[in-house]
Specification:
- By secondary structure, the protein is of the alpha+beta class.
- The protein has five helices and three strands, in the order H-H-E-H-H-E-E-H.
- The chain has a single domain, classed as Winged helix-like DNA-binding domain superfamily/Winged helix DNA-binding domain (Arc Repressor Mutant, subunit A, Orthogonal Bundle).
- Strands 1-3-2 form a three-stranded antiparallel β-sheet.
- It comes from Pseudarthrobacter sulfonivorans.
- GO terms for molecular function: DNA-binding transcription factor activity.
- InterPro entries: ArsR-like_HTH (IPR011991), HTH_ArsR_DNA-bd_dom (IPR001845), WH-like_DNA-bd_sf (IPR036388), WH_DNA-bd_sf (IPR036390).
Length: 110
């Protein structure tokens, strides 16, 4: 796996972070604009601590960044992390397309 030499642990963190609907929604929101953690917590029917844990998972996967600003922790999307995820999925798609082309070639020969 090439994709900027991501280690297996990095890939695991990336997909585990994106496997949760709340975390995907947080990524969608903070990619469009920055939010404070408390602002995000107001959007979900869960505790502030639970939202904070979701943000921490996303931060470890490099999908968001968090910055302390005064008393607030501001979360924003990390475009570089999202680009790595896209490139990884593109790589998987290329493998799939190569396999499909080989199958088509075999069927054309028969």
């Amino acid at each position: 796996m090439v994709v900027d030499q991501l280690r297996d642990a990095d890939v695991d963190r990336l997909f585990q972070a994106l496997a949760d609907a709340t975390r995907r929604d947080i990524v969608r929101r903070v990619t469009a604009g920055e939010y404070s953690v408390s602002g995000l917590a107001a959007l979900y029917a869960m505790s502030f601590a639970a939202v904070q844990k979701h943000v921490a998972v996303l931060e470890r996967a490099s999908l968001v960044t968090k910055e302390k600003r005064g008393r607030e922790q501001i979360v924003r999307g990390n475009h570089e992390g999202l680009a790595k995820a896209r490139r990884l999925l593109d790589e998987y798609e290329a493998i799939w397309r190569q396999r499909a082309e080989r199958i088509a070639d075999i069927l054309a020969e028969g």
